[in-house]
Automatic annotation (TrEMBL), chain A:
<dbReference type="InterPro" id="IPR002885">
    <property type="entry name" value="PPR_rpt"/>
</dbReference>
<dbReference type="GO" id="GO:0004526">
    <property type="term" value="F:ribonuclease P activity"/>
</dbReference>
<dbReference type="GO" id="GO:0046872">
    <property type="term" value="F:metal ion binding"/>
</dbReference>
<keyword id="KW-0378">Hydrolase</keyword>
<keyword id="KW-0862">Zinc</keyword>
<dbReference type="GO" id="GO:0001682">
    <property type="term" value="P:tRNA 5'-leader removal"/>
</dbReference>
<dbReference type="Pfam" id="PF16953">
    <property type="entry name" value="PRORP"/>
</dbReference>
<comment type="similarity">
    <text>Belongs to the PPR family. P subfamily.</text>
</comment>
<dbReference type="GO" id="GO:0097745">
    <property type="term" value="P:mitochondrial tRNA 5'-end processing"/>
</dbReference>
Automatic annotation (TrEMBL), chain B:
<feature type="domain" description="SAM-dependent MTase TRM10-type">
    <location>
        <begin position="177"/>
        <end position="369"/>
    </location>
</feature>
<dbReference type="InterPro" id="IPR007356">
    <property type="entry name" value="tRNA_m1G_MeTrfase_euk"/>
</dbReference>
<dbReference type="GO" id="GO:0005739">
    <property type="term" value="C:mitochondrion"/>
</dbReference>
<dbReference type="GO" id="GO:0070131">
    <property type="term" value="P:positive regulation of mitochondrial translation"/>
</dbReference>
<keyword id="KW-0809">Transit peptide</keyword>
<dbReference type="GO" id="GO:0097745">
    <property type="term" value="P:mitochondrial tRNA 5'-end processing"/>
</dbReference>
<keyword id="KW-0808">Transferase</keyword>
<dbReference type="GO" id="GO:0052905">
    <property type="term" value="F:tRNA (guanosine(9)-N1)-methyltransferase activity"/>
</dbReference>
<dbReference type="GO" id="GO:0032259">
    <property type="term" value="P:methylation"/>
</dbReference>
Amino acid sequence: VQPPEKPLQAEEWNRLRESFQSPEIFEEVMFNSMVRCNSPIDVAKSLLTHVAKRNGDIAYNLLVKYLALCVQQGQTSEIRDVYDIMKIRFRVLESGAYNLLIRGLSNSDQWRMALTLLEEVKKIMIPSRTNYESCIKAASRHQEMNLAFELYHEMLAKDLVPTLDVLQAFFDFSRGMKGAELQKELFGILLYLRENQIYPHKTFMRSIKLWFESIPGGNWRGHLTSIKDSGQCPVCNHQLEDSDLTEEEYNNLRERIIRDVIHGTDTFRKTSPQEFEAFQKFVEDRFPFDIVIDGLNVSHIKPRKMQCENLFDAVNCLAKDNARLLVLGRKHMLVNSSNWKREIMKEMQNKADFFFAENISEDDAFLLYATLRSGKHCKFVTRDFLRDHKACLSDSLTRHLFRKWQLIYHVKPKKMFLSVFIQQPALCYDCVVQTTGDTWHIPYKDTFEEKYSYRVPRKWLCIQQK
Amino acid sequence: MQSANVLLKKIVRSSVLPFAAQHGMKKDLFPLSRTLSVSFCLKQDNSCSPSEKLDLDAWKNVMKSGLQEEVSEMVSEPRELSTLAAAREILEMWRLAGRSVPENISEEQLKTFVECPSKSAKKKYLKYLHLKELYKKNDKRKMDEKRERRLETASKTDETRRNSFVCLWANCMDRAYSWRVAQSMIFGQPLVFDMSYEKDMSVREVANTVRQMVLSEGCNRRSVDPFHIHFCNFKDDSLYHKEFIKHYREAWGKLLITVTDQCYTDVFPKDKLIYLTADSPKVMKTFDHNKIYIVGSMVDRSVKTGVSLARAKRLGLETAALPLEKYLLWNTGAKNLTLDQMMHILLTLKDTGDWKKALEFVPKRKYYGFVSKPVHELKKNLNLINTLKLGKRQEEVRKQFAKNYSKKLTQK
């Protein structure tokens, strides 16, 4: 339905309602389309008046829809009126109405009212992160940074993840402001980005840069740059943090993988205890390896070629520099078949160690174990992103460690020309927000949306104090 | 003064509002809040706008005037609410706001709702209750309609029919079925349901499982040559047990099945057992009348692959999967079937040994059709159909996308 352009009389509304196919929901549908078309609120008011006169009451959902229209147009006095009416009419309100009220009021000069509403929401449920977002933005817009940070910490304490918008608002509105406390809080936000591996997008990065440069007497200078492969910043010649996992992190990750990925709820799901024990013994006898190869995965790289030939090429190529290789496979590879020729398999076994798992076992779990057991220098070769194994890890911290470790140690065969492996150089520096006190290095994304989670940004913001 | 005020309000509310709203005297009579007077001023301003006959804020007066009494009632009530009562109120408001929320909710359900760990879990649970309520209501409506219709027809045809049998169908059939199942308990082929998955399932999944098992038991009872059903690893007072009692009530004790807390490996010789699981690498070729098939009583709504295969591996049992790929051109959906579908398929196989007939019980949405030609030929046709259906252009776009995508993957 098309909402009318001018307020209508009762009879006119009645006529419209009669002509509508299902009159019971006429008002609802009409209000929905008013919100969609952003009709003038006078029209909506005339409909409300019509409903009120006919029924002597207005249903809650209509009030909420009217409220949505008011919020959309920033009609503060109307929002307040609706709130007053709702308050006397209903004992509690629900989240939808509160969301609208908070959003509507926080954008007006009555933004303090939004704060009281937030308190009201807290009594009945946990406010959503957008509730907090509105209030924080309102407070920082009015330069009440202390209040804004108080809300921000409260939000973090409730395990709500702040939107990048909120974080950006802090930087935008503190521009040029003095105060050691404020500075500390904003550095805290940057460290929050570091801890959660969040990369700011371009506009956010710009806000950070402008804030730094605006600190009175701070003498901060920001430059956009990209880091050299060696991990050195071309602007300030600072060497970025090493990407290696610490000893503790590494051991932690290994234990978690054995516990969550290989054993999980039931060792039998991926392997069997006998098999895992045998594999453990096999690795203990022969480690450390330099490269662990996922035999089956590699053997499918070129579909036109025989599978064992693919593997053969890979082993030959990787075996060149006296590297100790371990190839993981399944028992069926040993059976002479059109894809797996016995002679070639024999020849390969001279160049590398092989372990053949049961046909129904998961060889990826072994791959992870053998690599981690061999130590930090060991790499593995597979095209698999191992997402399902990552998902088995029980907490997000370990999942992140896994991700980091994977980025460093994943040697992926690139597009092969004549079966030549080109190993992708792993990044030797850690791609997170980092600081030395008088410098900050902040990686950022070009676009707002994150296209691939496994891709780390290549662009950096270098900030240094003169 | 007070009573006169109330009286007047009532009059105002009932009929003559448009008239009353335009009278200034109302202002004096109603000791109302600030906003009302504000809106009055606004109204005065509006009076010179094009819609002069319309009082746009009249609805506010209506909403407020009707409420003075109720407000005073509310104040006397204690404001402190228990969490459950508060939750009930929130639910009520959500219902008013038009969310999918059940109209009636029991104390127990409310407790489950409050204990839901996250907002989305709460929403999901409410939607589930809402739909359940809708179905129930619809069923009841249909029942009532049916009863009415029956009453009508009954009053019309009241003549006595002559028949050589006394009409005792249901009872007789029951007895005949029971006799058959009793026979099968002595001579029939065992079929084992493995009831050891309770810890792998949520409460709702257990309820679904039991429902499916009740259906399977029913169709087994009605078949020509029933299985001898065993519930193995069945613990008394387990969640399974409670759900079964909910379904069967006192009939639970009279069911013609064997229920035991022993494992099937203790009851039957190991070499005769075959564990049916969709994850099995082995595909079942024929139905063997001398083997004992095991079905895991588990509904898996989340992704827990290989749980039953792990069990079979642990016990060193033979496994098998239905030859779905061989006989059906698969469309979508997981290859694991519900327990009652499994029962239908096994019963049909037992009676006829005909795979085609048995696999009729696989839900139609999951496959395109039976394989009559070699599979690759069918797939080619299918691609052709899809191309025609989607239009040529779209297909090209998709190919392009696939190409780019693989390029990106390899570049990375």
